[in-house]
């Protein structure tokens, strides 16, 4: 049995035990989602395992054995926050707006609602006044409200290590195809969610935009992430999201005006930045050569010059001309 599946099932059991009155073995079995259904013997073993870490006890009522959590344990003890710490937590709601409609965002909203209620009335008024002069700009992002069921399916497929079948629209090819994918990880980057997994058609690990998965089915086919596979290593050479192109050593030189706002930013984990005596920034990166990289460099306009590689410089000139000649 996959370790993730057991842990997830035990999490569902704890949620059921948190309810007043606890639950019988049969009630616990009925409370599990359909794809986590199991024999009552398995649930009993799970409860015995949980008893070693949580204060679970049994109580007999009306001839039935009910499993319960010790009173009060289902509620996390009050934590001591300073007023400014509580206010900072409330502000994180703005930062999580791109995840609106997902279970993660709903859990965060619920937690922050409790935090807000913990504040005295005067502090709540102060937070409202802070919004008049301080807010978090999150930039362009996608909405995932209509993709909630899809995200739940993917999360369960990853936990249970099951292959998924999906219809996927490729923006690069402007084509819809059917895929079988072994799901490894859901990655949030630049305001969007991506599924990272092994594509049975491409015979390689690929990245899929969650919002372009048109339909999804979780199969009973088992899958396994390769030993040693690391998500951070997989996305390392992407400037932001796009990867797969050849890695190049890029050197950019910015004029003084553009350097004033380009310096001090972390554009990529590989970057090496130097500032000369005239205030001009030189940036060296090792990144994948993709259309994303081309668009990023062009976004600086005439404020940047490509020192190397020469091949990229020529492509940038052609791309700029195409933009200028558009009617």
How would you characterize this protein structure?
The protein has 327 residues and is an alpha+beta fold. It folds into four domains: 67 residues, Arc Repressor Mutant, subunit A (Orthogonal Bundle), CATH 1.10.10; 48 residues, no CATH class; 91 residues, SH3 type barrels (Roll), CATH 2.30.30; 78 residues, Alpha-Beta Plaits (2-Layer Sandwich). 37% of the residues lie in helices and 26% in strands. The chain contains eleven helices and eleven strands. The strands form three sheets. A five-stranded antiparallel sheet has the order 6-5-4-3-7, covered by helices on one side. Strands 9-10-8-11 form a four-stranded antiparallel sheet. Strands 1-2 form a two-stranded antiparallel ribbon. Helix 1 packs across helix 3, helix 1 packs across helix 7 and helix 4 runs antiparallel to helix 5. The model has no long low-confidence stretch (mean pLDDT 84).
Estimate percent helicity. Answer: 25-40%
At CATH level 2, the architecture of the largest domain is Roll
Approximate strand percentage: 25-35%
- Strands, total number: 11
Which parts are unreliable, with pLDDT below 50 for 5 consecutive residues or more?
none
Radius of gyration using CA atoms only: 26 Å
Specify the overall morphology. Answer: globular
Q: What is the SS-derived class?
A: alpha+beta
Q: H/E element string?
A: HHHEEHHHHEEEEEHEHEEHEH
Specify the biggest β-sheet: 5 strands, antiparallel
CATH class of the largest domain: Mainly Beta
Number of helices: 11
Looking across the biggest beta sheet, what order are the strands in? 6-5-4-3-7
> Quick check: average pLDDT?
84
CATH topology of the largest domain: SH3 type barrels
C-alpha end-to-end distance = 60 Å
* Whole-number tally of structural domains: 4
């Amino acid at each position: 049995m996959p370790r993730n599946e057991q842990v997830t099932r035990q999490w569902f059991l704890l949620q059921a035990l948190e309810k007043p009155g606890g639950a019988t073995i049969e009630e616990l079995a009925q409370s599990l989602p359909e794809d986590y259904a199991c024999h009552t013997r398995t649930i009993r073993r799970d409860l015995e395992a949980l008893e070693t870490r949580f204060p679970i006890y049994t109580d007999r009522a009306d001839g039935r054995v009910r499993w319960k959590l010790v009173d009060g344990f289902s509620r996390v003890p009050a934590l001591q926050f300073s007023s400014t710490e509580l206010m900072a937590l409330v502000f994180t709601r703005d930062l999580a707006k791109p995840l609106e409609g997902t279970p993660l965002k709903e859990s965060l909203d619920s937690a922050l609602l409790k935090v807000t209620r913990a504040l005295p009335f005067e502090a709540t008024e102060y937070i409202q006044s802070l919004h008049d002069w301080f807010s978090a700009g999150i930039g362009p992002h996608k909405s995932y409200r209509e993709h909630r069921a899809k995200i739940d399916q993917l999360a369960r497929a990853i936990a249970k290590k099951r292959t998924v079948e999906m219809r996927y629209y490729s923006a690069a090819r402007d084509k819809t195809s059917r895929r079988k994918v072994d799901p490894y990880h859901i990655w949030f980057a630049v305001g969007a969610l991506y599924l990272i997994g092994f594509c049975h058609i491409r015979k390689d690990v690929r990245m899929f935009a969650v919002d372009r998965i048109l339909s999804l089915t979780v199969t009973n086919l088992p899958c396994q992430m390769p030993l040693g596979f690391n998500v951070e290593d997989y996305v390392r050479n992407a400037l932001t999201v796009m990867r797969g192109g050849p890695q190049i050593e890029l050197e950019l030189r910015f004029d003084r005006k553009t350097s004033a706002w380009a310096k001090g930013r972390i554009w990529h984990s590989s970057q090496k930045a130097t500032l000369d005596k005239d205030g001009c920034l030189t940036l060296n990166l090792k990144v994948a050569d993709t259309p994303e990289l081309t668009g990023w460099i062009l976004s600086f306009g005439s404020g940047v010059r490509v020192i190397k590689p020469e091949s990229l410089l020529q492509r940038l000139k052609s791309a700029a001309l195409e933009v200028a000649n558009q009617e």
